[in-house]
Design a protein that fits this description.
Layout lengths: L1 H33 L4 H6 L4 H7 L1 H19 L4 E5 L1 H4 L10 H5 L4 E2 L8 H5 L1 H5 L6 E5 L5 H14 L4 E6 L6 E5 L6 E2 H8 L6 H9 L2 E5 L1 H16 L3 E4 L6 H8 L11 H18 L14 E5 L16 E2 L5 E5 L4 E6 L3 E8 L5 E11 L7 E5 L8 E3 L9 E12 L2 E9 L8 E9 L17
Length: 458
């Protein structure tokens, strides 16, 4: 009987201890859900230090681990950056913060530039990214200038060896031609729709396209880019996000036409579709947070005040360009575009090369077509032979009205301060010559004849 009584007493003590422990744990859980940051202090008011140390060391460790996990989760958030044209910029949207980069990540760095193609970012990758590190990189330069796209993708891969890089391969309504089946010439979809009198981006316009007795085709350039972009993707270990061009074109237009706000730019629904499709690619690619970085090669320094209206300091923390007599004006009030305007017949511009060796210099300026808005100018680097003069004729090579950036190699500048001397060669131009940026690099690049974004000339 004595042994049975002892056993019973022992069982009661253990049961009491277990109930007490369970109650304490429930108290901790409740307190934790109410005040994650003060749980240990709150519990100490109800438990003696001895009880806490003897009964709950593991629970206290769990709570600390939970706090560390939250911190790690925050630090391991994927970092997104996007390059591209006015499409990725979110042009024509009521709220550009709803563009697809920010649907992928609200913290995305959207480096897309209106009126641009891949030539500037391929020359200026380091300047644009500085010391930032990214895990997911989306590049929307699928229209032209694939030599520069290859350079940009290569520089990104060399700098970010672990990043997931996605190259887009989309199309827009400017890529479609129309030929009446009962005779008639091939026309651009834009011109054909305009002549029809149908509201351009309406359901009525789409019904007219789908029900007309015409043959619709994509321009050959969409098919010609297939092999080129595949090579770039393979060489840089990049993914490709593409839109179908081989299906029935009327079916393709039936699904894609409603995604555009005009003939080029996606609307809110279009950006949502792009973001959703890219998220599907990322779900399979499973990108990782990585701080491993590689080289920028010989480096670059670029300045563009086209969108910001400010000229930032260079690597040496010096103002990279000086021209006291040349005003930096906001020439496009609606779209917020800025340029240095050359109102005098002759203008001197000082540009500093921050590197310790000679570098090529490219100038970016405004150009137009077919209206000739800007005068021809000549430019040479002071101290160089006169036969090194470069002539700039700001006519954009395109087949419909545009007002865009153009860029051209001027020559080689030495380390330190260099003076570029401009001379206006035509006096009857509608606007003054407008300089919007420059690039200093030692790379071998092919600047484009025209930046992409088609902005109608007023």
């Amino acid at each position: 009987m004595r042994e049975l009584r002892n056993t019973t007493d022992t069982f009661k003590k253990k049961l009491c201890f277990s109930i007490t422990l369970a109650a304490v744990i429930l108290t901790y859980v409740k307190l934790f859900s109410q005040s994650d940051g003060h749980i240990v202090n709150d519990t100490r008011r109800n438990l003696s230090l001895k009880e806490e140390e003897t009964m709950l060391p593991n629970l206290r460790n769990i709570l600390r681990s939970k706090g560390r996990k939250s911190s790690n989760e925050e630090s391991s958030e994927l970092r997104f950056v996007t390059f591209g044209t006015s499409v990725t910029h979110g042009a024509m949207m009521k709220d550009e913060s709803n563009a697809y980069p920010f649907l992928l990540s609200r913290n995305a760095a959207n480096l897309a530039m209106r009126a641009s193609d891949s030539s500037y970012p391929s020359m200026c990758t380091q300047t644009m990214l500085k010391e930032s590190v990214y895990d997911v990189i989306v590049v929307e330069y699928d229209r032209r200038q694939f030599e520069s796209l290859a350079v940009l993708a290569t520089r990104l891969r060399e700098r970010f060896p672990d990043a997931t890089i996605i190259l887009t391969k989309m199309w827009n309504l400017m890529d479609v031609t129309v030929k009446p089946n009962r005779g008639g010439k091939v026309e651009k979809l834009r011109e054909w729709l305009f002549k029809s009198g149908k509201p351009m981006m309406s359901q009525e316009a789409l019904d007219f396209v789908l029900n007309s007795d015409v043959t619709l085709k994509f321009y050959d350039r969409l098919f010609e880019r297939e092999e080129t972009m595949e090579k770039i993707a393979n060489a840089t270990n990049s993914k490709v996000y593409g839109w179908d061009i081989y299906g029935d074109i009327k079916d393709l237009l039936r699904h894609r036409f409603p995604l555009f706000t005009d003939l080029v730019h996606p609307n809110d629904e279009g950006h949502s579709v792009i973001a959703h499709d890219i998220q599907n690619i990322l779900a399979k690619a499973n990108p990782k947070h990585s701080n491993r970085i590689g080289t920028w090669g010989g480096g670059d320094f670029c300045a563009s005040w086209f969108q910001s209206g400010t000229i930032e300091n260079n690597h040496n923390n010096n103002l990279p360009l000086r021209s006291p007599s040349t005003p930096l004006n906001k020439f496009d009030q609606k779209n917020g575009k800025y340029a240095l305007e050359f109102h005098k017949d002759e203008t001197a511009v000082q540009i500093e090369n921050p590197f310790d060796g000679p570098r090529k210099i490219y100038l970016s300026y405004m150009a137009s077509y077919p209206n000739k808005l800007y005068p021809k100018v000549s430019v040479y680097i002071a101290g160089r032979p006169k036969d090194t003069i470069t002539h700039i004729d700001p006519i954009a090579k395109y087949d419909f009205p545009v007002h865009v950036q153009d860029t051209k190699l001027i020559g080689v500048i030495q380390p330190g301060k260099n003076v570029l001397k401009f001379k206006t060669l035509e006096k009857d131009a509608e606007e003054p010559f407008r300089l919007v940026g420059f690039a200093i690099t030692n790379g071998v690049f092919n600047p484009s004849d025209m930046y992409f974004k088609p902005a109608l000339v007023k």
